[in-house]
Amino acid sequence: MNPRFLFDAAWRGGKSLMWLTIFNTVVALFVTIVMQTRQSFLVNWVFSMLIGCSIDLVIAAMRWIIWRQQKPHRIAFFVVCMAAAPIGYLIGGNIGLLIYGVKAPSFLSVLKNGEGILVIMSMFISLFGGVFFWNQSKLAELEAEQEKEKARSEAIERQAMQAQLQLLQAQIEPHMLFNTLANLQGLIAIDPARAQNMLEQLIRYLRASLNSSRTEKTTLRHEFELLGAYLELLSIRMGKRLSYQVELPTDLEEFLLPPMLLQPLVENAIKHGLEPKVDGGHIQVSAQVQAENLHLKVIDTGLGLPHDYDENRRTEHHQSHVGNANVRERLLALYGEQALFTLSANSPQGVIAHLCIPVNI
User: What architecture is domain 191-358?
Assistant: First the structure.
């Protein structure tokens, strides 16, 4: 059986018992203070608990006999509550008398001795309790439905994120893949060794990217391996126009994060910063932890940000911002306002893409 189901059932049972105890205690206070019986509060409380619990058990038994697993009709349920009151009163009262060593009287003698008012009062209290617990039950049903809806929404959101990741893969891979295959075709004839190296890196990259697209979380080690294969492919294609450096401290290799967060940033740095630049440039990818936050940086020496770039303006429909917008949306969905993504100018030229992710989530 599901542990969560058992926990929820135990929580609901404990909550009902708490309200029943409070309810019976209020009744005992009323009997002691308002009705001014000769008995002490403790005695009245014991009888109130016994009678209240007996009525509750009688109601539960009658409900099971009449409706079994079906949901009871509200008015009929309230009638059952009132009918259960005298039965529960007699059962609980007799148990209390036995506890205190007093011979239990018959129900008729109880009415003759003037305790009929208490029986009638117990009926109205039982009705009031039935209304109260009915409303509590409806509230619990609404809360349970809300939890189910929340779980469904989270599942849909995870599926949407997975589809978004696969879409991002579809955006990134064709551009790189076709260029790589075209370069590979040309190298086979003139430089077989270099072509072999490119083919090996392509296989390495495709294997790593396939694993990333099928998981919700990946390690920094795997993410950096993917970037290493990707950058090695591009360095073979671009030659001396591209140099790169990947820095991952050993103690951060097993850090978990969503896959494909760095890939679109590196893709943008190459596509819009280094490839259009005649003499190319350098790209550096690094990771470090500071002040309980993971800082991931992609630093390039490319053409830099457009002169009209505005950090607060979202031009998602422009092709150069698709990857950035995707990263922003995923960070917001996964970490809320606790994560940060910024683009700033590098000195003397280029762009710094900075991801800041809390390590305690």
Answer: 2-Layer Sandwich (3.30)
